Here is the input.
Amino acid sequence: MELIDTHCHLTFDELAADIDGVIARSRAAEVSVWLTVGTDLIHSRKCVHLADKYPDIYAAVGLHPHDAKDLNAAALEELKQLALNPKVVAIGETGLDFFKDYSPRQDQFRAFAAQLKIARELNLPVIIHSRNAFDQTLEILENHGQRIDRIVFHCFGGNE
Here is the structure.
């Protein structure tokens, strides 16, 4: 059996400190491919670096809703440039989190819509974090998600 880890954070300190060991133990458990997911610019850069270093690691780049307040034009352009790397296979983790509200909601709306635009432009799937914001997430997808037909809800609190 071949297992694929479709959402991990290999750049987080507790894993990055022993990345070769993490990969070896994962391989021993029959994981053969990893998608390491960015949550901010620093981790998105690190995800791309890991994907470039290991043939069986792929990257997603994005800005988590907790960090949406940090999105500016330069950060958005860097995310887009990172997403052009052939080992980048998705935009995310992006979305809305109204449970913790670490970023103002208007910033979350703006960052989510901007990342959906990048996904559309580059024809990449989107990894969505939606916590206590189901209706608003669907509304943004309806208004800004045109032509995005590949969406993964990583964190989801909605209904059918």
User: Anything to note?
Assistant: The chain has six helices and six strands. The chain has a mean pLDDT of 95. The first strand starts at residue 3 and ends at 8.
